[in-house]
Amino acid sequence: MSLNVVELTSQLIAMKSETPTSNRAISDFLAQVLEGAGFTVEVLSYLDDNGVEKVNVVAKKGRGTGGLGLFSHSDTVPGNVGWEPFTPEVKDGKLYGRGSCDMKGPLAATIVAAARFDAEQLTKPLFIAVTSDEENGHVGSYFIVEQSKLLTSGWPEYCVVCEPSELQPVYAHKGGARIIVTAHGISAHTSTDKGESASFKIAPFLAEMAQLAEVFKSDKRFQNDEFSPPTNGFNLVLNDGGVPLNVTAAKTVAMLGLRAMPNAATEEAIQMVVDRAKAHNLEVETRSLTHFYVAPDSPVVQAACRATGAGRAVTVPYGTEAITYQSYMPSVVLGPGNIAQAHTVGEWIDIAQLEEAVEVYGRLIEDICTK
Questions:
Q1: Which residue from 152, 134, 130 is spatially nearest to 323, judged by alpha carbons?
Q2: What is the DSSP letter of 354?
Q3: Segments of the chain scoring below 70 in pLDDT
Q4: In whole angstroms, what is the distance from residue 302 CA to residue 310 CA?
Q5: Number of domains comprising the chain
Q6: 134 is catalytic
Q7: What's the maximum distance between 2 C-alpha atoms anywhere in the chain?
Q8: Average per-residue pLDDT in the chain?
Q9: Looking at 42, 102, 133, 134, which residue is catalytic?
Q10: 3-state secondary structure of 111
Q11: Does one domain contain both 285 and 298?
Q12: Are 112 and 7 in contact (CB under 8 A)?
């Protein structure tokens, strides 16, 4: 089966699959394309918290055990105003459109590469997975690792998460933690002097967080020099509901975030924030996404380096679904496109790099699944 990567990416861009909406249409299309390329296809759906159907596609070609998995997602962030996000356009060697970079272009490259191989050529199986809700907490990835019979009956030996990395193999990326701290007051017009400001209640805690931010920037225990920047990106955002100046805030919420890294005392950093919140009798809850890490000399990373010709793998500060898959398969992040283009107005991907990705994925398939 012969496919053109620019044409396939353009078709995918034209199919709206913004995260809050259902991705049924694009998933049905992908299932059809993968079946045409000789894959056995499994379609798995669920209803999200708003009752919207979300669809995941897992496909397998070839027999045996081990092999290679190429993993992507079909959802995108909203199209935004100021351009025509779902009208693909080729201009000056670039393909424009929502998802061109993140990550319909990389997804298309995996399918085009995979379509070049007949099942009879494969000594080990080849998997392609396309998830939903990646832009909403990676929900689809967690769903397929539990529900996909094709995966759970025999995991690939290696996993490639095809997020944009400019075709540079990535062996580690940061995770994240969100700490939500809430203070409660009494709302009243300030002329009555009967109110109690939640913002004043939370203020001493905030002063301590300003001091803690300096600690995280200066203390090497909370840093990892494998990353650029090596710091954990500790940040604070406040919300008092937009109350006017002549009304005391009934509720003030501080959202604090940091980026988790291996060997950077992340759990200790989180606990420091939690302990100070409790010391001020404030409500506190935490949500975390772990970091991704595989040894830079591991076989999956070395395979990616061979396929790309890269001298070494790198780390990146953004996150991917590799955090889900690393518990099941040795994983690496590798895809065409620059993450700086993701989620932007005028999102684009370099066509030459998109076409090169087909060759890179083809070399990976040949190396892992045909020998």
A1: 134
A2: H
A3: 1
A4: 9
A5: 2
A6: yes
A7: 82
A8: 97
A9: 134
A10: helix
A11: no
A12: no
Question: Same domain for 270 and 332?
Answer: no
Instruction: Write the single-letter amino acid at 295.
Output: A
Query: Which pLDDT score is estimated for 1?
Result: 63
Q: Is the pTM of this model over 0.85?
A: yes
Provide the residue type at 161 as one letter: V
Among 75, 135, 163, 240, the active-site one is: 75
pLDDT tens, 250-279?
Answer: 999 999 999 999 999 999 999 999 999 999
Q: Are residues 75 and 148 in the same domain?
A: yes
Torsion of CA 80, 81, 86, 91, to 10 degrees: -110
Do 84 and 190 belong together in one domain? no
Amino acid at 368: I
Query: What is the domain range of residue 120?
Result: 5-172+292-369
Paired tokens of 138: 């990676």
Residue with tokens 């937009």: 242
Residues 160, 215 within the same domain: no
Residue 101: what are its φ and ψ, rounded to 5°?
-95, -45
Chosen domain end from 240, 262, 289: 289
Residues 168, 56 share a domain: yes
- Does 321 qualify as catalytic in the annotation? no
Residues 168 and 304 in one domain: yes
User: How many CA atoms within 13 Å lie on the side-chain side of 163?
Assistant: 26
For 265, phi then psi, to 5°, come to: 55, 40
